[in-house]
Amino acid sequence: MRVPVSWLREYVDLPDGVTARRLAADLIAVGLEVETVDELGADISGPIVVGRVAAIEELTGFKKPIRYCTVDVGTANGTGAPQGIICGARNFTEGDLVVVSLPGAVLAGGFAIGERKTYGRMSAGMICSATELGVWEDHEGIIVLPPGSAEPGTDAYGLLGLREDVLDIAVTPDRGYALSMRGVAREAAAVYGTAFRDPADIEVDGRPGAGPAASVADPGLCSRYVLRAVSGFDPAAPTPPWMRRRLALCGVRSVSLAVDVTNYVMLETGQPLHGWDRAKVSGPIVVRAAAEGERLETLDHVTRALDPDDIVITDATGPINIAGVMGGLETEIGPDTTEVLIEAAHFAPTHLARTSRRHQLSSEASRRFERGVDSAIQPAAATRAVRLLAQLGGAEVDPGYTEVADAGAAPAAITMAAAHPGAVAGVPYGRDTVTARLRQIGCAVTEDGDTLRVVPPTWRPDLTDPNDLAEEVIRYEGYENIPAVPPRAPAGRGLTAGQRLRRAVGRALAGAGYTEALTYPFTGPRDLDGLHLPADDARRGALRLANPLNDDEPLLRTTLLPGLLKALVRNVGRGNADAALFEIGLVFLPRPGAPERAPLPPVDRGPTEEELAALRAALPDQPRRVGAVLAGARERSGWWGSGRAATWADAIEAARVVARAAGAELVVRADRREPWHPGRCAALYLAGDGGERLVGHAGELHPRVVQAYGLPARTAAMELDLDPIEAALAPATAPDVSTYPVAVQDVALVVGPGTAASDVEGALRAGAGDLLEDVRLFDVYSGEQVGEGRRSLAYSLRFRAPDRTLTAEEITAARDAAVAAAAERTGAVLRG
């Protein structure tokens, strides 16, 4: 909402010395989001005055029509003599009042006005158009002022509002009243404690019930409906400059007087209006829901299929308006309209919001209806509009008017403890302060001891519970007056074991060259299809959001991979081809038998145990996982040598990094699971006293998945469940450090097809005994020397004793025991 400060001053007495920027800061302090303060006309200076065209001489012999005008500018030029000015515009005649920039004036863009000879005549100044002065858009020619509106020589700055400060306010959905001069003026009056003059405080004259026939089929769609009409309207009557200027300052284009009046009253009061050519409306008007199959051609020349959820205005021919959104083309006000029918209504906000989104029509009217308008202002707004049509367009107001109102639509009373605002803010507010602030915004307050019965005003539909009222008190008393008291953590409490684990995992992966990515927990069927998951895969059974932010992502994620893969694609697309990303986050797994929708708990009290149990039953399981994806070069090439591309082994190593950070041990075995390549996929098991538990998978992604997501070839990924790793955490202990020397023994074992290296390693560890410090696989060979289908696995065994130097016999015995255990368990043969 753009708010011209000069217009605002008509409804509120701003204190002396309050500038536009000070006003903006004070409105921000009470919760209005003033984004900018535009100082319009600051680059215009010098004499700009009203002039009367005394004579016009047509000059001939030039390529375009040129006129030499004699203009009376009073004494503004210092001499009182008429001013001679060359002008090419032709939309004015002798006797018209125009706006003249005299020599010495500077217009927008640094355009200086002087006296110079042109077209054979001396031109002293310029007759200005609206575009040249920047007051409104106009391509018809220069500004022609209404007769008698000013005397020649009158300063045009105040007359046209050439210099104006405008506040640009971003109105949040809960403050629909601020989409009007009335609402912002009421806020300013409350901020400064000054008088407020309500533009809607007018007497509604005429005979109720004697206007055009109208009815409302369902009061739930429209709680109040008002019609007023005028006849004898002059369709050629121009919109006065002051109204055009104010509309332009608010960002509204001038169309015609009848349309401009409806827009002006909407900006002034916040009540959207619609005007019809009354001669084009047939029969009684009915407000109802649209019928299946109905269509309407709207003012933008688009024929729209109506939905039964749409509210429509109909006459005997059918729909003539999509209520609160856009009018129909057949009944629009045209250049020959002499009878105007004005509609003011209070439509259901939810219906209007859905209609606007459905038809992709967001208008100034729909924005206000969606946020909630005053439910009692309609008669005053319609009366204000018809009076302006009579005053400016020569119309005669019909004595009767129509009002259909739902008696049960009045705001409901709210019961609140007088101490409630203080309890919310942590600042004691006296009861007198609370009641004064609530009355200041228009509430009717009845006191009953320490309990207040509050009836919100009709222009504040957002006030529905005690917390809303508490917010009003707090913001007017000043958010800055709430003391900042940081919470104090109880002594002796630090991070939980889970928090320490997550930090350790994050640091370990970052140290291994991965970059953390924080992705949205939302996904869609297309993402799951890209992973090529089977139809019966449990990961497809995702929870659906009731109101998703994006229609393409209506599901809660069951795996971290889609978000990470899309982040990887985005990085690669921006030139970061060698990328390694990780994320630690929750996934959401539906519980069998859980309700489809979670119940909505009340906001005016704490939930009961039964309500909490119902909420818990509806919540999904939310295990915490860590995922990683990598593509491109894992080790870059340079002067030190050639690099190395990332492979499935790096994804497995990322899982090992996570396990080492947690002090856990992973067992790796070959597996098949989407979305990984069936020949390059590993299952990750957590080893423990109770056996092995599957906690994740790692490896190279399937080529079809790579193609579906647009990933680089051979992209690898890992996903690991952190919760069982956290559950297996043992108390941290310092490792034993031996000062005695280490003994290294290398063994090469030949194994048959299908034997996993992890099984061989486990057998070596079990057979070597307590002297074994570490086992590392350092070479894998397959070829003719070991036989077809067989492999040679070379391991480095490190032996050390904590209390002595090992003898050669001890080392040899431990190595032989390890080889023997590997031979027994896996069939491995010591390579000769």
Put the structure in a nutshell.
This protein is 27% helix and 27% strand.
Description of the structure:
This protein has 832 residues and is of the alpha+beta class. The protein has six domains: 2-42 and 165-192, 2-Layer Sandwich (Phenylalanyl-tRNA Synthetase, Chain B, domain 1); 48-162, Nucleic acid-binding proteins (OB fold (Dihydrolipoamide Acetyltransferase, E2P)), CATH 2.40.50.140; 207-409, Phenylalanyl-tRNA Synthetase, Chain B, domain 3 (3-Layer(bba) Sandwich), CATH 3.50.40; 414-477, Phenylalanyl-tRNA Synthetase, Chain B, domain 1; 497-587 and 622-727, Bira Bifunctional Protein, Domain 2 (BirA Bifunctional Protein, domain 2), CATH 3.30.930; 743-830, Alpha-Beta Plaits, CATH 3.30.70.380. It has 22 helices and 44 strands. Strands 30-33-34-40-39-38-37 form a seven-stranded mixed beta sheet, with helices on both faces. α7 runs antiparallel to α10 (378-393). It is elongated, with a radius of gyration of 40 Å. The chain starts with a strand and ends with a strand. The model has no long low-confidence stretch (mean pLDDT 90).
Descriptive key words:
832 residues, alpha+beta, Phenylalanyl-tRNA Synthetase, Chain B, domain 1, Phenylalanyl-tRNA Synthetase, Chain B, domain 3, single chain, 7-stranded mixed sheet, 27% strand, 22 helices, OB fold (Dihydrolipoamide Acetyltransferase, E2P)
